[in-house]
Write a structure and sequence with these properties.
The chain has about 150 residues and is an alpha+beta fold. It is about 25% helix and about 10% strand. The chain has one domain. Strands 1-2-5 form a 3-stranded antiparallel sheet, with no helix packed on it. Strands 3-4 form a two-stranded antiparallel ribbon.
């Protein structure tokens, strides 16, 4: 029994804890910095299908793929969704590469994830992030359809 406990504690936190069991620091470190969740999305009201656009929230720094004002993001962007463990399974729009979604589905992180690779730039080198593919320009709502892309999924 002791060996079994020892084996469990040697596993990385994301393999031995649920999202709800994680500390704030562990939760925050799951974000790979891809920026995909910050892309503007369109939802078809009839089918509930969500389409990503290449237009990023004004708060996303498209070079670093991090929020420019993370600690006050909800005050700066009123419709910003502050993701919490109990919300992950409800948001089918989270990309298939998202660590929060992967953990909720009982899957492991990809090799390029910074927690696995030890390198925060590995997500960019792997071509997973929005770096070089998204723009933070302001676009009128009726023009968003012109910017629909399929690469975030």
């Amino acid at each position: 029994m002791a060996a079994e406990t020892e084996d469990q504690t040697s596993l990385p936190f994301w393999k031995r804890k649920s999202l709800e069991e994680m500390t704030r620091e562990e939760w925050e470190s799951l974000c790979d910095g891809c920026g995909k969740c910050c892309l503007l999305k369109l939802e078809d009201w009839d089918t509930a299908e969500v389409s990503y656009t290449s237009i990023a929230c004004r708060g996303l720094d498209t070079d670093t793929c991090r929020c420019k004002f993370y600690s006050r993001r909800k005050q700066e962007v009123h419709d910003c969704i502050v993701l919490k463990p109990e919300m992950v399974e409800r948001f089918s729009w989270l990309p298939g590469t998202c660590a929060y979604r992967l953990i909720a589905e009982g899957k492991d992180l990809f090799d390029w994830h910074p927690l696995v690779s030890g390198d925060p730039d590995s997500v960019h080198r792997a071509g997973i992030s929005v770096r070089g593919r998204a723009t933070s320009e302001e676009v009128a709502g009726d023009q968003l359809e012109d910017f629909i892309v399929d690469w975030p999924k």
